[in-house]
Design a protein that fits this description.
The protein is mostly helical. It has helices spanning 8-13, 48-68, 72-82, 95-98; strands at 29-31, 37-39. The protein has a two-stranded antiparallel ribbon.
């Protein structure tokens, strides 16, 4: 919540969502400035500059979070914010990161 939510992601999400009678967007077509008709499922909704800025912001927040998590005042604030996530689904391990082998201690 502290590292991804309330970032530029919120700005990107704030745009107008097109109406879809099917509910899945399969009936939505975007017509670009050159007259190309692009199905909604194939439209890129974020450009490279927006993606780059979003990823940098999230990485910087994750980095700062890890640097400061042992600071009691910072931790108290994070814990206060975490109360807002009480109704969210519980996190689960990411399968890609979980598949990376862990370092095992050397045996003597």
């Amino acid at each position: 919540m502290a590292c991804v939510r309330n970032t530029q992601l919120e700005t990107l999400h704030a745009g107008q969502v097109p109406a879809s009678r099917t509910g899945d967007g399969s009936d939505v077509i975007v017509v670009d400035a050159d007259g190309n008709r692009i199905p909604w499922s194939e439209v890129s909704r974020i450009d490279d500059d927006e993606m780059r800025a979003l990823m940098r912001e999230i990485v910087d927040r994750l980095y700062t979070f890890h640097l400061r998590i042992d600071d009691p005042a910072f931790r108290a604030e994070i814990d206060r914010w975490a109360a807002m996530t009480a109704k969210w689904d519980a996190p689960k391990p990411d399968p890609v990161l979980s598949a990376i082998p862990a370092e095992t201690p050397e045996r003597g």
